[in-house]
Design a protein that fits this description.
Blueprint (H helix, E strand, L loop, with lengths): L3 H51 L30 H14 L8 E4 L5 E4 L2 H20 L10 H10 L11 H19 L1 H6 L2 H22 L5 H12 L11 H16 L7 H4 L30 H14 L13 H8 L15
Antiparallel strand pairs: 1-2
Helix pairs in contact: 1-7, 1-9, 3-5, 5-7, 7-9
């Protein structure tokens, strides 16, 4: 049920736009909903980033797994445990571009003799890396629909992406990688009982949404042959805030665009927002120089405290009487003090008018 409901929701979203778009609701699915999704995306991103930026981080709390810089003769891990800002930037770059954290103890299994062994799940790392990089190239390629003239970089990316020249129109390599990586991630979530147990409906919803976008885009290019000129006219109208809905745009395009709008609206409120969040994570974007620099909490304010010394001064005699050890023994009482404390005072009956006893 955790998988079936998200699948039905994504299928219903596509079917709704596929049927209603060409039937007279093209302005709704081609203009109104994309603008609303864009507003939710921008507003949600700004809200979440502002919320993260306001979170107090008074101390350095980087999560590190390498040797920290200490003595000169001990070799430090300059990227795993960076001491400088340059090292922190290098660590972030490796994490963002190569997903290095996925290469560390992401799989556990029990051996025949009962030992629990941790290792690297290379398939998970390769699948996640392929999906994210392919999605980035897909976004770059789609810039040709919202730019005129098309930048040379976008054209170069298209030429490299279709260098195999398979089919007509040519099959893009990133399209195959994107769909294949998504199918692997979905299959892993279904085949692994541990991963399947911890999976939530939102996890399946994100995968099915991305799969729906990828499959509908692949179908438009290779199966149903959508009018690319009409699609670019609609996209350029949205960018220039002069929207127009050409009649040549078909139902598959409306379904594809509606799924993209749903993903954009869903992104700020889901775990998919780790893209900007990784740059604001204090466990990764800070240098670990706690041994070299003393960091003082800037929000500290004077607090009236009751030290142990004050506590002992007040209760020293009682502590000694109870047999509790103290740091400073009580001062000895002199004989003169004892005599003065024990001698009875002269009464008024024994005193003469002059005050003599």
């Amino acid at each position: 049920m955790k998988m079936l409901l998200p699948l039905l929701v994504v299928a219903a979203l596509f079917a709704l736009a596929f049927i209603a778009g060409p039937a007279g609701a093209g302005w709704l699915f081609g203009v109104a909903l994309p603008y609303a999704a864009l507003a939710l995306l921008v507003g949600g991103l700004l809200y979440r980033v502002a919320l993260w930026a306001r979170a107090p981080v008074p101390f350095r709390i980087p999560v590190s797994c390498g040797q920290q810089a200490s003595l000169d003769w001990i070799r430090p891990a300059r990227l795993d445990n960076p001491r400088s800002a340059a090292g922190a930037v290098g660590r972030m770059a490796i994490e963002v571009l190569l997903f290095r954290s996925l290469l560390r103890n992401t799989r556990a299994k029990q051996t025949a003799d009962g030992r629990l062994v941790y290792g690297t799940d290379l398939a998970l790392w390769a699948g996640a890396l392929a999906m994210h990089w392919a999605m980035l190239v897909l976004l770059v390629r789609h810039l040709r629909f919202v730019t005129e003239p098309v930048p040379a970089l976008v054209l170069a990316v298209e030429r490299v992406d279709s260098f195999l020249e398979i089919g007509l129109p040519a099959v893009y390599l990133t399209s195959v990688l994107f769909l294949g990586a998504l199918l692997y991630l979905l299959g892993r979530r279904l085949a692994n009982p541990l991963v399947r147990y911890v999976s939530l409906p939102t996890d399946y919803f994100a995968l099915f949404l991305l799969l729906g976008i990828g499959l509908s885009g692949f179908a438009m290019r290779h199966l149903f042959r959508t009018d690319l000129a009409a699609a670019k006219e609609l996209a350029m109208g949205l960018v220039r805030f002069a929207p127009v809905v050409p009649e040549a745009v078909g139902g598959v395009f409306f379904g594809h665009l509606f799924l993209v709008a749903a993903l954009a609206a869903y992104l700020p409120f889901s775990k998919l927002l780790h893209a900007p969040g990784v740059f604001l994570s204090p466990t990764r974007n800070l240098a670990n120089n706690n041994r070299a620099v003393r960091h003082v909490n800037p929000w500290d304010y004077p607090v009236k405290v009751h030290s142990y010394e004050d506590y002992e001064n007040e209760l020293r005699e009682k502590m000694v009487h109870a047999g509790i050890p103290v740091e400073r023994e009580p001062e000895p009482v002199t004989a003169a003090v004892l005599v003065g404390a024990t001698e009875p005072a002269a009464s008024a009956d024994t005193q003469d008018p002059a005050g003599r006893v």
